[in-house]
Amino acid sequence: MGGGWRCRWSIEILIASLATFSLLALRLASAAPIPQSAPDAVSAFSVNTERLWDHTVSRRLEGDAWATAGRYHAAHVLMLPLHAAFSQHYESGEREFTDHVERFFAHRSEVQFVPATELSWLQYLYLISEFLVLAASHGHPELVPDGLPAQMRSWVDELWRVRPAWHWTRGPFDGMGERVRWKLASSRPGVGELSYPGVILDSEIFLLAIAADLRNYGRLVGSPLAGDPLLDTIAAVALDVYRQRVVWHPGGGWTFQPGLWRDHPNYRHACRVRKEPGLRACILPDIAEDASHSHRSPLWLRSLAGGSPAGSPERHYYQALARGLEEQFFGRVLEPPSSEFDGWRMRNFMDGRNGIYRWEYPSLGPDQGYGAYELSGTLLHGWWAFLPGERARRLYRDLATRFPLPEEQLLIYAGPARRMPSTGVLRDGMAELLCRLAAELPRSAYGGL
User: Fold this and answer.
1) Radius of gyration of the chain (CA)
2) What is the DSSP letter of 43?
3) Which of 40, 55, 170, 377 could crosslink 413 through cysteines, CB 3.0-4.6 Å?
4) How far apart are CA 123 and CA 119, in angstroms?
5) 3, part of any domain
6) Is residue 363 part of a domain?
7) With contact defined as beta carbons under 8 Å apart, do 349 and 295 qualify?
8) Which residues of 308-335 are buried (b: 16+ CB within 10 A; e: fewer)?
């Protein structure tokens, strides 16, 4: 996904050489790092799947994933295994996650919210809030360390009301809550004004989802979190965010705050389809958000639905959003295998556009960016499996049979960021495991989607 890692290379041929070497390494590693299963042997916890788990998930959980900026990526790839461990009653996996969470809680003093690390901490704390809900909803509330729910609520309060919340064009707000309310109250920018200072950020939605998880957990175990005034307030703001920023499209499907990212540096080349030196910017006034970051949306909606009272209009609303997102993803974003390319790909933007994203982003270097389909790597993280319906399960069942990946698919999934740690999932078997687990994810979950 490209966030946070900065690589500077002064000689362009070094970039090309490293990219070529990295692709070769990906190809060799994908060929056979671990015994592969036959296509018809795809199941959540077959012998081969357990071997993949031990080689990937277990090794990651043994480490202190929260201790470095790598917590952002670790939380991405551990989310689906967390859900699979509980939904498939994989006791070994449940125990590993419990041990990891207990060790994290023992080191909770290491959590420090500063602008440079805030997003990575929120991504990781979302993994923890999901652990709370999954443990409680599967009849194992005793796995939750004493004091962890209260600590999570304290962090939510700190971020929502107390911790200064930065902004691009003005001084910091008194917490994310004030910043989100300011964005919702602001009219759309006029001619000549920047649009992106008004966008709702993924860090803000992570906080909304974590608060929803705490409400859900409170109802499941009968704790005061179920009626906590702070969490109720955040839930009301979350509803306002989606009602204001979702734009439905004729025939079904929707996009989130289209056009507000249009003049941000990451989006200024979205109308270009070919990489070439000296590429000039051009603005698409209604460009939708990129498909890579949007892969968190299915689970965010589950959290928001689960945090709403059963049978309430709020829960029905989030369920409708989940169904609309499923239509948008399969109707406009996902590209099935064809005679042109025998693999699954995503278009780069949620409206179906496929132009360049993050041109000359610091970690990518000069005259480089994510070209057509080169955000497809996040497809292998498996979060799209949290969409309702059967199509997502069928997608991942097919994806799971395609390992080891041929070179042309590795090239697309690795994208221009082949040197970055996030491509490690292609090297160590994690991508295959995630596709296997996604294929067997139950249709129903605590959010009722």
Assistant:
1) 21
2) -
3) 377
4) 6
5) no
6) yes
7) no
8) beeeeebbebbbebbbbbbbbbbebbbb
DSSP H helical ranges for 246-346: 297-306, 313-328
**Environment class of residue 283 by beta-carbon count within 10 Å: exposed (0-12), middle (13-18) or buried (19+)?**
middle
Please answer whether residues 405 and 426 qualify as being in contact, where contact means their C-beta atoms are separated by less than 8 angstroms: yes
Query: Residue 12 falls within a domain, yes or no?
Result: no
Q: Provide the 10 A C-beta neighbour count for residue 338.
A: 9
pTM metric for this prediction: 0.90
Give the Å distances, CA to CA, from 262 to 36, 103, 350: 43, 42, 13
Domain presence at residue 22: no
CB 345 within 8 A of CB 373: yes
Domain that holds residue 233: 35-439
Picking from 442, 437, 370, 380, the residue whose alpha carbon sits closest to that of residue 405 is: 380
CATH code (residue 360): 1.50.10
pLDDT digits (tens, 9 = 90+) for 139-158: 999 999 999 999 999 999 99
Which residue is listed with tokens 């390319």?
Answer: 341
What kind and span of H or E run contains 246?
Answer: strand 246-248
Domain count, the chain: 1
Predicted confidence (pLDDT) per residue in 315-362, tens digit: 999 999 999 999 999 999 999 999 999 999 999 999 999 999 999 999
